[in-house]
Amino acid sequence: MAEAAIPRSRALAREERRRRLGPFGVLTHLALLVWTVLVVVPIAWTFLASVKSEDEIFGDAWSLPAALRLDNWARAWDQAHIGQYMINSVVVVAFGVFGTMLFGSMAAYVLARYRFVGNRAIYLLFVSGLAFPVYLALTPLFFVVQNMGTLPVVGPFIGLNTHAGLVLVYIAYSLPFTVFFLAAFFRTLPGAVAEAAFVDGASHTRVFFQIMLPMARPGIVSVTIFNVLGQWNQYQLPLVLLNSDRSKWVLTQGIADISTAAGYDADWSALFAALSMAILPMLVVYTIFQSQIQKGLTAGALK
Amino acid sequence: MASIVLRNVDKIYAGGVKAVNSINLEIKDGEFMVLVGPSGCGKSTALRMIAGLEDISGGEIIIGDRVVNHLPPKDRDIAMVFQNYALYPHMTVEENLAFGLKLRKMPKAEISKRVNEAAKMLGLEQYLKRKPAALSGGQRQRVAMGRAIVREPQAFLMDEPLSNLDAKLRVSMRASLNTLHERLGVTTVYVTHDQVEAMTLGDRVCVLRDGLLQQVDTPQNLFDNPVNLFVAGFMGSPSMNFVNAELVRGDGGASVAFAGFNLPVPQETFTEKPGLDQYIGKKLILGIRPSDFDDAVIANGHAGGWARLPVRAEVTEELGSEINVLFLIDAPPVQHQDTVAAADAGDDEEAALPLVGDKSLWTARVNSRSHVRPGQNIELVVDTHNLHFFDPTSGLAVGHPANARV
């Protein structure tokens, strides 16, 4: 009897939901369908073009390639140095995101959980960075990084045309959103757990790293993904700060170079291959962490 | 194990709110002390000050022979159980229990020995590998207790640890808390707003109100000899009945008159409560516990000398073993700030009944053999040896030794 009751109640619930949503349910799905097309078509087109010949690319957009031109990928990887740029991108983004998350979460935790004079002011200072476009301070930023290069001892490592210099700038630009989001997230976590850890004998540092940080995992993961995407796609900052040393370039610069280097005689096939290579890692990251991102975003949004 | 002493402890929050006002309290080694009071009375704040989670604004707190005012929680050698358990959600039960021990750099063998002992004591053995999210409320509560037990601290601090459990589980956990304390004998400070918990658990109970200590005594003494109207109204369920009365001395000895009734006051009461004779011919507030009533018919025979009180039962609450009889008496309810505060704190649903024509609602607890129905007239008897008298202005109990000193 109980077994029969459960499916019936589920069917009822489904019916009920359908009735509640009514025509809007259909509209929602229609809108989502349009959105899917908008997102999928350009990506599919890019991947398709990456295995076409030049002539095919300029022919019918929907035609399939006569033969799989995998040499496009090889050309992009070797001749356009996309391989090197990819490694550079991975290194810069890895350190950039790690630094952002480390400093961002620590700052957010303290701002969210400890009361001290100036707490609010520091928080607002961080958050005001959100309203601060990258382009606005590009020239001063260039000089700042140039000056960093003249510092004793560490100078050569963090000046212009260094990855560490770029990483520091990435961290600085990513902190506002990271602090803003994580501070809100830390505020939603129960304070008694931290107190229990204090009574158990943990120091402030240990409470943060061993108790609060694991509890904030959904939030941490979503902000991490957000930062990875943002820093991976960053073009303006490396263009300015890594300008003169080609061997230090990141992926975005490499791709732009393919399309501009040869003037009107650009290698379009290789360009699409390079673009595909740049898209793939992000696609993989997003797919793996998709559920975590959803969880994190809704957890933050509820409060 | 150690004693805990609070000496003139104050807590003043930003904005000048005094949450705890000059509390003096001595908790003996191995004692189970319950802090009880309505919400906002400062009991949790006091506990958190002992734990080191709140700064102490004034006075000093001594655990063992150390003044701990400026020690962080981890150096006070205390363990705390929180209302919402505060388990570490990403650790298994075993890791939760071991966390505090690991931090104290205890050898692995000793840690696992203590964890297993505690798990056995609390019946948590089969859950050691589970995360808190996969446990029921009662199991989580036991893990929280276990986390305190494995530490073998100088004292346990418990902040309403049972209030998130359902009623039945609360009763059984109360019993296991009692046996646990018996077995371990660790000094325990227990905060609750539930006076039944306070009565059943405490070696001694400390009643707080608005940050001020009202009375510290054994549960029975609190019940029998409340120091003022607030304690009298707060402790005991159903709560004490109050009425404005007048003490008179007639031919047949002293008696107390209220609402058309006249109860004789035995001579012993005057010797027990020195100073009561000064109220003769004056107004005072009379208090009678519901349990000091009984049905005259049932009580016949063993209620010699008890006064009789004919009333009409308005509402009856049958509890199985006894019946709460709610009846009206012809006198306005006592409007003293203490009784109002205690009534707000308690869960007296009868206070919500509409009262007409300056009558007040009293409760008598009679034997269930009485079978009294609502609307019936019933003759109650009152144990006049247990009458309580309070000063109408100060609200203090007349003749209570603590009040004699002031």
Q: Could you explain the architecture of this structure?
A:
- The complex is a heterodimer of chains A (303) and B (406).
- With 303 residues, chain A is mainly alpha-helical.
- Chain A folds into 2 domains: 2-71, no CATH class; 72-302, MetI-like (MetI-like fold, Orthogonal Bundle).
- In chain A, 77% of the residues lie in helices and 0% in strands.
- Chain A contains 15 helices and no strands.
- Chain A starts with a helix and ends with a helix.
- In chain A, 31% of the residues are buried.
- Mean pLDDT of chain A is 86; it is low at 1-6.
- Chain B has helices at 43-51, 93-103, 108-122, 137-150, 167-184, 195-201, 219-224, 229-234, 267-272, 296-299, 337-345, 401-404; strands at 4-12, 18-27, 32-36, 58-63, 66-67, 78-81, 155-159, 187-192, 204-209, 212-217, 241-250, 253-258, 261-264, 283-288, 293-295, 307-318, 322-329, 360-367, 377-382, 388-390.
- The radius of gyration of chain B is 24 Å and the shape is elongated.
- In chain B, helix 2 (93-103) crosses helix 3 (108-122).
- Chain B is an alpha+beta fold and 406 residues long.
- Chain B has 2 domains: 4-230, P-loop containing nucleotide triphosphate hydrolases (Rossmann fold, 3-Layer(aba) Sandwich), CATH 3.40.50.300; 234-404, no CATH class.
- Helix content of chain B is 27%, strand content 31%.
- Classes of the chains: A mainly alpha (303), B alpha+beta (406).
- The interface between A and B is medium-sized, with 17 and 23 residues.
Supply database-style keywords.
heterodimer; A: 303 residues; mainly alpha; MetI-like fold; 0% strand; flat; disordered N terminus; B: 406 residues; alpha+beta; Rossmann fold; 2 domains; 6-stranded mixed beta sheet; 5-stranded antiparallel beta sheet; elongated
